[in-house]
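Lab notebook: predicted structure, single chain.

Context: the supervisor wants predicted structures on file for every construct in the current expression panel, including those that have not yet been purified. This is the next one on the list. No modifications to the sequence; it matches the entry in the shared construct table.
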Amino acid sequence: MPEPRPPASAPRPCWGRLESPVRALTSPYLLMVLAMLCWAGNWLLARALRADITPIGLNFWRWSTALVLLAPFALPRLRAARPVLRRHWRLLVLLGLLGVALFQQIVYLALQYTTAINAAIFNSTSPMVIIGISWLLFRDRISARQALGIGLSLVGVLAIVTRGQAAVLLQLHFNPGDLWALASVPIWALYTVLLKRRPAELDGLVFLATIAAVGVVAMSPIYAWDVLRGGHMAFTPATLGVILYTAVFASVLAFVFWNHAVPAVGPNKAGLFLHLHPAFTTVLAMLFLGETLHAYHAVGIVLIVLGIYLTTAATAPAPRPGAAA
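Prediction complete. Output recorded below exactly as produced.
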């Protein structure tokens, strides 16, 4: 005889109380914040060790190591995912080329020559480029409130990178690295927008392993050419540590966070979180490079947070006709 069902008014199991904290920890907004923190550390380390490893070598070994780390988790799920991979292989190849092979390769190349201020300014234009590409491809629009939030956040970024002095913008000197940094912006913007088309039924780790494999295959002949032309890598604890960090945090964790969050909130909202990148870079520089916190840092970070709040905070739905006010 089957057990009777509990009455409708029966209390929920005690583990139900854990749902809110768990949901908060998996919030797409929190995941994007963590991704920005991981990527800020990636830029800081790449800039610091630019003399010890070539940009091509760093990107190749970063993603090769990440692929090795992902393989034990992704391979057992690969058989079930094959039909989805076959249906969407063109999109997956494109995402692997954009997000793995091209974007970070160009960023590492830019950091060989350009200053952190210039790179941060160029990176701060990504949200606007994301909005433009999103409109061109999918006709996505933003509200006036979101536009205000993006504007405030951009002002906050400029406050940080110019140290609160507008004259700094007039004193910037541009070099080939600046052009590489500028070229990376539409690549990442297109990657972010195309994540909207990521197959929902495809496991996240299989998806990341797939685009990582595409990127590593695409980079292999370029890396071989780099080695043949004398590209060097100093095998020191510092360089090995940087490769491990970029593989675990900047590749596996950050991309899992970003790839999961963007389809959940949309590329326009997600793009605004890129403004946290220079803010986190500034904080990390103070913690690890001994730089000092100034008033413009605080003002810039407050404006960035306020802009993100205005853009992402839920707005009240319009009342239905006949509904009570």
